[in-house]
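Question: Now follow the chain.
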Amino acid sequence: MILETMFFTVEKIDGDYAHLRRTDKPSEDTRLVARALLPEEIIEGSQLKYEMLQYELIRR
């Protein structure tokens, strides 16, 4: 299994979920992720790094 590092922007927070848009490899689609898997302090516009099956806040 290859674990790739990916970068995202929080596009929209919708209750218990967040819509993430990939920024290192732009795509039309967003990724719907449960807020429980994301750093608590995210807001719309936050930038995240996904690595080793974890999301990390890199800029709020």
In short: The two ends are 31 Å apart (CA to CA).
